[in-house]
Amino acid sequence: MNAAVEAIVGDLNASNDSVRLDEPDPQLLDRVIAECVAGLKTLQREDGHWVFELEADATIPAEYVLLKHFLGEPAPEIERKIGVYLRDLQADHGGWPLFYEGAFDISASVKAYFALKLIGDDIDAPHMKRARDAILEHGGAANCNVFTRIALALFGQVPWRAVPVMPVEIFHLPRWFPFHLSKVSYWSRTVIAPLLILMTLKPVAKNQTGTDIRELFEVPPEDVPKYLRNPTGSRWGDTLLWLDGFLRLAEPFFPRKPRQRALDKALSFVTERLNGDDGLGGIFPAMANTVMAMTALGYPDDHPDLVTAKNAIEKLLVVNGESAYVQPCLSPIWDTALAAQALMEAGTDGDDPVVQKAMDWLAGKQIMDVYGDWADARPNVRPGGWPFQYGNDHYPDVDDTAVVAIAMHRANNAKYAENLSRAEEWVVPMRSENGGWGAFDADNTHFHLNHIPFADHGALLDPPTSDVTARCIGMLAQFGYDREHPVVTSGVEFLRREQEEDGSWFGRWGTNYVYGTWSVLCALNAAGEDMSQPYIRKAVKWLEDEQRPDGGWGEDGACYWDETRDVVIDSTASQTAWALLGLMAVGEVESAAVRRGIDYLLKSPREGTQWDEKWYTAVGFPRVFYLKYHGYSAFFPAWALARYRSLKKGNSKKVPFGM
Prior knowledge:
Layout: H1 3-21, H2 26-43, E1 54-55, H3 59-71, H4 76-89, H5 106-119, H6 126-137, H7 146-154, H8 186-201, H9 235-250, H10 256-272, H11 284-296, H12 304-314, E2 317-320, E3 323-326, H13 332-345, H14 353-363, H15 398-412, H16 417-427, H17 466-478, H18 486-498, H19 513-527, H20 534-546, H21 573-585, H22 592-603, E4 606-607, E5 610-611, E6 618-621, E7 625-629, H23 632-649
Antiparallel strand pairs: 1-7, 2-3, 4-5, 6-7
Helix pairs in contact: 2-23, 3-5, 3-11, 4-5, 5-6, 8-10, 8-11, 11-12, 13-14, 13-15, 13-23, 14-15, 15-16, 15-17, 17-18, 17-19, 19-21, 21-22, 21-23
């Protein structure tokens, strides 16, 4: 290369570096942060909390319609609006996906089609024909998952042999037995308990219009030779399928008195945890099963428990003009803690009335005196956690508790010393034997249960995960636990074992590896880990390599399948914020990747405090149930921008907080 060419190349490289490393416009940065702060403050409720919409897929609003027709209580006006929502969600492939622009899902599609038909849509309408063709192309309604087939059995659309045998006598099993309700996750427990009543009594939906969906089966549903499948393909799965067949033959001969006692136990479980108008478990499927179970047991319409259970469901409705949907649950604790964190990062003082009102509201929601199901594994531990919903006393959430405690400690650790002490007292012993934390239970690792035919959804358990563990380490580090404390040491060792080959961490409760990696890097920083270690630099390189040409980061729900793990369709504001927060936690404030990410956020479309974000960036259960937190595009980008500004202005580039 001659001198002239070298000079030209040198000039080009210098120019590229200059473009890449230009500082984001500080005035624009200040203006965007100020607008976000003002917007978040206006969204705060009078009593101090925030709550944003929480959207899932078509299944929850479809199940709401099915519930109404099971009860013989159709609601034409709200169903009409749900119909608008369901039609809008139908994808180009003809069916319904589990997340925005996702692949066809047979179970979601069958439920949505059935709901629309119950609402009154003509099966020859173009959208219904497209849906029917897509469902049949994928093998028909016989290929739905277990939960969908149970719903169809309640409507007489499939025979009861289409679902696994789950006798209510399960409630008589001792705790040492291989299957026991204490061995499954909280969400499984609350769904299964009323479901066992339904599967025992086998009521038939009132279905006043006599609507059926026989056209969705390749052969008549009663002629389908085999519905049940081995969920794992293992020999254990084959053995348990054989056991299911044996139980099916034996069940008609089960004695009536023990069965009645089991029904009584199941009902007692439900009523003890009814949870007022926040509903059983605070989640729609458990609430809907409760209403149907009580109806099957003959509860009169004015029975207080039945009225309460129905009211809990109605609280989940969201009506936006001519469209309506049903939320899977409500997220006020989570939203409030994260919104307050974003405001404090942006410079709102912990003693500011906005933050104080939020913290006071959260303090009043701490569960101090109810020994929930978690106490089965930790009987000698005092309560002290927070739930995810407005109220869910039997099921506090470790993740929420850690996030609330981090925010509360940051706001005013002296004022909330008792709340923080009780949170610490509960969180530390909720650690599992492997050093990590699960979301609701300790040592919920009974993986043999994944082989039962009922577990084809793959979401039966609540084992420790990287993201929840990271949050707990972040909380304890902010409380003053050092890197050598045995609890922190074992937690960090758990995280190191969980690191993926490419350097990332799996995200159980957020999508996906960006979420997991952000969570872990923040925790490692808080714990005082040496950020120059190779395993941390490997994570940094992974985040940098995943940055998209537009400067943002993005993953969608397809990344939970191995074959589509690396598919990225678009960048999102919330995932970009996570990546930035993760990189800044390890000191990469001045890096080109961070600057480009900040620039992406500053220039991306938004309205007030919320960035445009159609994508689902969270999960209820990977590959099964996805979530769109409407608040994520509000508080996480604001948080990342504010942290960038504070670190740039500060004397230290180290993040002093647990997340």
